[in-house]
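Continuing from the previous page of notes. For each protein in this section, the sequence appears first, followed by its structure tokens. Read the first protein now.
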Amino acid sequence: MDYLKTAVFGLDDGGQSMLKAALQVGSFKIMAVADKDIKLAESVAGEYGCIAYDDYRQMVMQNQFDCLLVAAGMHHCAEYIRMAMKKKANVLKLAPPARNFEEAAELVALAEQEGVKFAIANPRRFTPSFLDFRNFLQEGGIEQISLVTADCKFGGLPYPLWHTDPKLAGGGVLLRNCYSLIDQIVWNFPAPQQVYSLNTSQTADRQQRLYLTEDTAVVTLKFGENLSGNIVASRTFGPVEEYLKVYSKNMLLTVSDTYFKVSDRLGDGCKLLNYENDVSGCMKALLGNFASSVLSPQENKLVSSGRENLINMAVIDSAYLSARTGMPEEPARIMNMVQAEPVNIWPDRK
């Protein structure tokens, strides 16, 4: 098979970014696009020479695809993603994987049952600065790490109104905005044993806060006796910035999309690498990996599988549960609560 017959669910910025990257890779043949806004779908379909739909169910029922690229909200299309998997379509879902851990685990189990791939689009896994950061850690460039922190501020960035509805969105700033940095923490460090979170909404109406997703959160992670972490997130306060810091006895690492800095413990830099923020290039690399893993699975390992991303979802669900109970929660317990296919709690980890 020289190319993958492909359809796209959702044509917001994320969906169109995946669509453009898929064409640049050359392994995808775009057969159809779908969006609730039929005028948008028809405009994009006209540009790419494919069929437009505003009904996800109709698109899946009337066609046979090798791949489905998903950027639409799960409240619109979860049922039709499952339908596509049952028709043997491989699925690449723009992060986050689902609205909650249970929904994500169900999709993972179904994909494995049907023998198709369910992958999550985490572009930062292909960002040069974060790759250099990961290589530095794996090569033992820093020892005796004691603290990992993440700052995620998104003040002023627009977001759709449904992101504020817990039933539709599943969560607020942690799930919708911080997923990528949480993925970096979980990907590069031991899985957190405990998670404690304080979440709030900055709306003036106290009663209304009970029915909105969080726009501000402070999360504490306990990895073990000697390593802890902290995440501060807000989509109310700015300016926009996202970065990780890693502290050891004698060294401080700081990484963002545009730089990787190695400093002494006081923050005085001894090495600074700057990078272009090439979002389209990262998405192209991500789509290339996904296509290769489908076309030649023996030679090409999928970088961000749905099963691997269950760990991220367990950490995030633990944070939401902790915010409700006022107590630390355990991601391993979240993993074991769901009666899906048997789950290896921490795959590829010693």
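Done with the first. The second protein uses the same format. Note its length before scrolling.
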Amino acid sequence: MDNPFKNLLKKTEESVLGIDIGTSAIKVVQLRNKKGRAVLETYGELSLGPYAGLSIGQVTNLPPEKLSEAITDVLKEANTSTTNAGISIPFRSSLVTLMELPPVSSKKLDEMIPLEARKYIPVPISEVTLDWWVIPKESNIEIDDESKPEEEKHKTDVLVVSIHNEVLNSYNSIVKSANLNASFFEIEMFSAARSLLDQEPTASMIFDMGASSTKVYLVDHGVIKNSHIINKGSQDITQSISKGMNLPVARAEHIKRNLGDNTLKPEDQKGITEMISLTLDYIFSEANSVLLSFQKKYQKTVGKVILTGGGVAMQGFYELAKANFQTEVVVGEPFAKVEAPAFLEEVLKATGLEFAVAVGIALRKLQEIE
């Protein structure tokens, strides 16, 4: 029998963790619910390079046992006080597809989707876990096109996500070894959108530049309509400077973050600027292609580009982005939906760009326990 007193016994305040396992670092955010508001209790970040015998900031590919060790360490350093968590899964470990299907009942849709998904998934369906959401009609982008066949006007849009079972097994192993009580895994793009977006009147593009790659997500009325991975990130710039100038990775990282260094000779400064531009020009070009493709497909203008991720914290990056996108560019504020002490406001603005996914995960976990 269901406990009739469960709501009376439920805690009014409970802490939760959002954990983002990246390729170069782990980020963790602890929130609690205070009278319906998300309150920041603590947060922390730990570089994974040293766990692989590499420099801080370098991209790694650690086995589950090493990741569990790193999670345990960052939770200890951040002085967290709960094991209730949600965990992000990298976008590269998933396949996300927007399908257009005939208007049928939910039961029929459940039968159709696994069959249709075979056309998009390069491995047997038995090797992946599928999940899907029907996009509500009010969220669809309506295009007044009389030339469209009648049946196309009434199709059902379904967002389908697949994750390989090996990936899920690996993450379950990490959670168990780290003694976490993780109730869900979520693909990072959904977490980032949750923390960065609100009631946006126009379509937006999230531009998330990490260490190993840059992800772009096109979101309209709360629905991710398109997504793409650009296989270059901030570490590509660091490596280019390190090799081109014959410098240690740590020194190259410092120069990159400051878009140069006032101790350098003018000719060296010019060379480094060219190295940085070479990688960024490619990334911006790819992102613009995705943006323009979205606008052409849906005949919808993208109102703004939201910058996030550790890579965009480079000095001067915002100005470069503004020059490369033909729309409004803003710097994301992942902690905007979270209450935090006033003295942390400037710190969170400076470091918060790396925490969009962790904050988004923690916000979902809070909703789960309400």
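What the second structure shows: Confidence is low (pLDDT under 50) at residues 1-12, 139-148. The longest strand covers residues 37-47. We return to this in next week's lecture.
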